[in-house]
């Protein structure tokens, strides 16, 4: 039996990741499961949630980065088991968010190379769709969480580019990252583009091996 595919939807804040991952889950039906990172209900996820929602809860940036990575490790066995059982797993954010957001803080020593270390060994997505937009209007209306500040979001956008460049390096064997400009597109248009890429990927990729960061 071929394993399920690991499909990641990544992107900037307010680009519709959550809407689109839910629509994709509906389309793929019972043969798929959606996992959102951070997964805020686990022991580590609860700490992350507290950090994001309570400004007075201080943690060292390095420690926060390791918590986000640990949150992925908490779910790594479950993800692998689902894929081996033949289920597709849709991820809403994953390693690339981890590296982009942490390195965007500009903390001494916390460069891309530092940030990727605790992610090494996690299963790599088979297909990554990165949602981006240049439309200022699309980027209004951030929420109240710690990172939802326009200045910081601009830095994150630059870092996502750096992260993808780093993964083009042959050492990292980049895998199927597709950039989707969602600015000025309707939910239906984006959903159609996502479905075309995902259904094509599932129809043509049958490998049983996993790739790892
Ligand atoms: N975020 C998310 C990180 O900083 N590192 C990570 O590894 C992940 C998965 O957490 F600002 C940031 C991105 C965002 C915040 O994410 C919460 P959601 O998608 O808004 O819940």
TrEMBL record:
<dbReference type="InterPro" id="IPR027417">
    <property type="entry name" value="P-loop_NTPase"/>
</dbReference>
<keyword id="KW-0418">Kinase</keyword>
<dbReference type="InterPro" id="IPR018094">
    <property type="entry name" value="Thymidylate_kinase"/>
</dbReference>
<dbReference type="GO" id="GO:0006235">
    <property type="term" value="P:dTTP biosynthetic process"/>
</dbReference>
<comment type="pathway">
    <text>Pyrimidine metabolism; dTTP biosynthesis.</text>
</comment>
<feature type="domain" description="Thymidylate kinase-like">
    <location>
        <begin position="9"/>
        <end position="191"/>
    </location>
</feature>
<dbReference type="InterPro" id="IPR018095">
    <property type="entry name" value="Thymidylate_kin_CS"/>
</dbReference>
<protein>
    <recommendedName>
        <fullName>Thymidylate kinase</fullName>
        <ecNumber>2.7.4.9</ecNumber>
    </recommendedName>
</protein>
<dbReference type="GO" id="GO:0006227">
    <property type="term" value="P:dUDP biosynthetic process"/>
</dbReference>
<dbReference type="InterPro" id="IPR039430">
    <property type="entry name" value="Thymidylate_kin-like_dom"/>
</dbReference>
<keyword id="KW-0067">ATP-binding</keyword>
<dbReference type="GO" id="GO:0005524">
    <property type="term" value="F:ATP binding"/>
</dbReference>
<dbReference type="GO" id="GO:0005829">
    <property type="term" value="C:cytosol"/>
</dbReference>
<dbReference type="GO" id="GO:0005634">
    <property type="term" value="C:nucleus"/>
</dbReference>
<dbReference type="GO" id="GO:0004798">
    <property type="term" value="F:dTMP kinase activity"/>
</dbReference>
<keyword id="KW-0808">Transferase</keyword>
<comment type="similarity">
    <text>Belongs to the thymidylate kinase family.</text>
</comment>
<dbReference type="GO" id="GO:0006233">
    <property type="term" value="P:dTDP biosynthetic process"/>
</dbReference>
<dbReference type="Pfam" id="PF02223">
    <property type="entry name" value="Thymidylate_kin"/>
</dbReference>
<keyword id="KW-0545">Nucleotide biosynthesis</keyword>
<dbReference type="GO" id="GO:0004550">
    <property type="term" value="F:nucleoside diphosphate kinase activity"/>
</dbReference>
<keyword id="KW-0547">Nucleotide-binding</keyword>
């Amino acid at each position: 039996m071929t394993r399920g595919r690991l499909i990641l939807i990544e992107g900037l804040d307010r680009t519709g990741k959550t809407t689109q991952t839910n629509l994709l889950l509906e389309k793929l039906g019972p043969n798929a499961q959606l996992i959102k990172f951070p997964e805020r209900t686990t022991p580590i996820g609860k700490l992350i949630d507290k950090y994001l929602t309570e400004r007075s809860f201080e943690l060292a940036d390095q420690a926060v980065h390791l918590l986000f990575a640990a949150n992925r490790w908490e779910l790594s066995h479950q993800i692998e088991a689902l894929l081996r059982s033949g289920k597709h797993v849709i991820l809403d954010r994953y390693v690339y968010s981890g590296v982009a957001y942490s390195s965007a803080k500009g903390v001494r020593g916390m460069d891309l190379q530092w940030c990727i270390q605790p992610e090494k060994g996690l299963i790599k997505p088979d297909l990554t769709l990165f949602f981006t937009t240049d439309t200022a209007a699309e980027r209004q209306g951030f929420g109240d969480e710690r990172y939802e500040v326009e200045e910081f979001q601009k830095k994150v956008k630059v870092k996502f580019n750096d992260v993808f460049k780093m993964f083009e390096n042959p050492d990292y064997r980049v895998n199927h990252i597709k950039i989707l400009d969602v600015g000025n597109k309707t939910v239906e248009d984006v959903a159609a583009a996502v479905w075309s890429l995902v259904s094509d990927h599932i129809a043509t990729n049958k490998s049983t091996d996993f790739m790892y960061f």
